[in-house]
Amino acid sequence: VQLVESGGGLVQPGGSLRLSCAASGFTFSNYGMSWYRQAPGKVREFVASISSRGGSTNYADSVKGRFTISRDNAKNTVYVQMNSLKPDDTAVYYCYAYIRWTEFWGQGTQVTVSS
Question: Which of 33, 64, 77, 79 lies 20 to 30 angstroms, CA to CA, from 104?
């Protein structure tokens, strides 16, 4: 199993970014996927999740209405569109999958929101 995030960077407050997570090594369309984030000095926290076929999504209260998770099962990729970004969204963002009783994490991509 491999999860590879991309799309992070530096953005001004109020700006937008779209993160991608390319998955391989498992049947992507059979599994729900999630995004987590970890800010400096803080514990890793849940951001958003999506069901295997994309019909169900969940969000942390802190990002609800600003972030949108989606997936393309033909491309084995899960996305998170992040709008109206705030300095508090600064963190390393991780892609996560729970497959056959095992947790898998990507390497993370840095998102910095600053003027």
Answer: 64
